[in-house]
């Protein structure tokens, strides 16, 4: 009998999620509805990003966030879009955003059993130059959602290791608009068909190459790297006899650098350094969701000495060093870091 997912070119994200949901008889479709609202938030953000130049949405909003980042107008607009659309799904009890100092606790009568952490607009420094940017999200199950009364309760319940992620993904606002996500059984990529307004399946079951030929890091920080990281990067540029050097590709939007690494292989790095002892990227809505996706695609994600998915968060905006990508490349990096730690 047909699986409902015949090889047609219009397997929409909603249909795909419904199909996935059938594999979990206990689920009542809450995650499907939550992902529908996340999908809408990404489509609205996509539309704002693409008209920003015309609608005068470029430039700074005037404020800053708890991480110390200056907020671009599109950071604020995408943050509002994610909050209002996701809360309206009535499937979440807690929302954590890069642009919100405290967790948002949803009213009891509007609450669901999930928690979501999101980076509503990733790569903000690239907005005004029309370089690819994106959004990142991670979804957790909150079994005691009804016991949440304060923002402290909310933080405690959503601060789960990345291993506990129920679903994670990112949207990428590039020459095409992609949405890549995983529910814990593989990674699947969708492309927005503007004529339908639907994300359609274009990259079923993405697998990252075991080893790549590209490294991705902000070389401008090399003065401040730990010695072991500097030695690893040096080994890629000056390989042993007979091996060719890796190429460097660095966009400065995590979503774009990670997406290229996922499809082509290689390693994406945002190391800790003397200025940022835990690196720059935040665990809950950048490091963990991307690590989840990388592992689901057969890759690896490490701080240099431990698996990013094993970290138990202690604050909702905490940072983590990030090395993720092809399994063998990340193992090589770890061998440098572990030999000196
Ligand atoms: P965000 O725009 O959400 O604050 O994230 C920016 C991050 C990430 O997208 C990227 O990998 C990194 O900042 C780039 O940092 P540098 O400009 O220091 O290389
Ligand atoms: Mn930021
Ligand atoms: Mn970001
Ligand atoms: Mn951001």
Automatic annotation (TrEMBL):
Q: What class of enzyme is it?
A: hydrolase
Choose any GO biological process term that the UniProt entry carries and state it: fructose 1,6-bisphosphate metabolic process
What is one term from the GO cellular component aspect held by the record? cytosol
Which EC number(s) does UniProt give? Answer: 3.1.3.11
| This protein's record includes keyword Membrane | no
Cite the Pfam families for this sequence.
FBPase, FBPase_C
Please give the catalytic activity noted in the UniProt record. Answer: beta-D-fructose 1,6-bisphosphate + H2O = beta-D-fructose 6-phosphate + phosphate
Q: Which cofactor does it need?
A: Mg(2+)
Q: What sequence ranges are listed for the domain Fructose-1-6-bisphosphatase class I N-terminal?
A: 12-204
Q: Which UniProt keywords apply?
A: Carbohydrate metabolism, Hydrolase, Magnesium, Metal-binding
Fructose-1-6-bisphosphatase class 1 C-terminal domain boundaries:
208-336
- Give the record's pathway: Carbohydrate biosynthesis
Stretches assigned to coiled coil: none
What is a single molecular function from GO for this protein?
A: metal ion binding
Q: Which family does it belong to?
A: Belongs to the FBPase class 1 family.
Subunit record text: Homotetramer.
* Full protein name: fructose-bisphosphatase
Q: Which organism is it from?
A: Galdieria partita
